[in-house]
């Protein structure tokens, strides 16, 4: 099975090519710079992989590069600037499309703007298949199902909180560029920092993971959130993928997405000069030692609550795993045609269970 990786010359693209090869599939590297693509193939251990050169302005050539592939994974950001031509080319080729976008604005454009075209093409278009987008969306669906008062296929809840509680850690230059766009959008909206002061409940020793709040309180009102082993966490509103994806499959009155205040401040301080100083490829040892943590809490229409978390190491490596597993499932298992949030395209519990083979842990509990 051929899987095209667009933007394969970049850092995330190289990791994705390596994961395609590791899974026993055939990677096809697509981008505008042949030399860079071949270096990436060699670095990924796929020195004999096929390279196809096509720029974003060459719509027909880009579609032809995808035409005999089971799926295309788009890794070339910032997606707000570079993403739409790749979606159009995948649709023209009638090839399933996934991407590693974390940019809320672009994800919204894809989900809202390409649905009818994807239905006509008979393919699935699934953005946000990244370490925050997919796990956050999948765990949010599961906590919504736990407290839903509605019968049928669409859970109904009063509120969902999605929190990315990773600390300051490694970041690639591509991530920094993408987060400049996201933080600028967030800065233009009214956001209020919140102090989370929960009571704490330690998970059982048989389930490794963070500590979780029992009945947390947010100063000034609002829903509880999950604590970490470090204790209370300062958070700020931030436009995570879940703000767009969750309402696609949960009937919800309000979705809130937050990140650590220290990380929000870091993103807000990014300037073009700072971005250019960020290494293109993060230190491998630092990546391996880093942890990511996505948490979700749902408040039911009847007042019940559930919360859940997904956590693992090496966010960049996990993004490649998530994207390739999604491509495999679209190609082998199928999905409804159209634009889909991760939880619409894939069984949430089944997908998260698959990630446990890569050191990920997850859990959903009543609050």
UniProtKB/TrEMBL annotation:
InterPro entries: NAD(P)-bd_dom_sf (IPR036291), Sacchrp_dh_NADP-bd (IPR005097). Residues 204-224 are annotated as: Disordered. Residues 4-126 form the Saccharopine dehydrogenase NADP binding domain. This is Short subunit dehydrogenase-like uncharacterized protein. It comes from Nonomuraea fuscirosea.
